[in-house]
């Protein structure tokens, strides 16, 4: 019987195969062009993903070996090496490093996928393989969109990843949400999603929270699920917003964009 980690690992594989095939067709001009991440070129996004894959693989290997902490300065040394690469090396290095990470996840047997706990170094406690993989999947899926959107403003998040990520943003809201932009206004919105269908409540106050859909909401946000994820991640600019996104009530979509400016 498949467990949660199996689905996440399968999505990491399909995402890797898709993005690798895409970027291997890019030349240096494409790689140095703008991405969906405002301060990064396409190559710099790939550098971020590649260095992240290398760090994630080392973290996984330490967990498998008994959980020793990372050596002092390890992450910084990885970033320094990747920062020194050329755009083409960023592309090729990403493909190689991320393949190694995905292959290592795929090599884990069923018991390890279920029982292993991984210390990511920045959370209060070690997490499961499913949770560690899901965090990588979130980063990978959003940055895949960043890589592609400069050439195709209609691109959407990978369908295989979207259902797996819908419950992932709640713990991040204290960090990513900026309720002060509302100037003291508050609202409880119903969030009704499609593809897949889900319903949530979005409490806009201080703090911002995602929970159960309210029985009597102040307003309603309707959107494709992938657009909802992009809104939370600061990737739903007007030119990149599907026509199906609708907000009714005391707040506008522009208000929500300010609350979730990206990170």
From TrEMBL:
Residues forming the Mycothiol-dependent maleylpyruvate isomerase metal-binding domain are 12-147
GO MF entries: isomerase activity
What SUPFAM superfamilies does the annotation carry? DinB/YfiT-like putative metalloenzymes (SSF109854)
> Transmembrane region positions?
none
Query: What keywords would UniProt list here?
Result: Isomerase
Q: Which NCBIfam families match?
A: maleylpyruvate isomerase family mycothiol-dependent enzyme
What protein name does the entry list? Answer: Maleylpyruvate isomerase family mycothiol-dependent enzyme
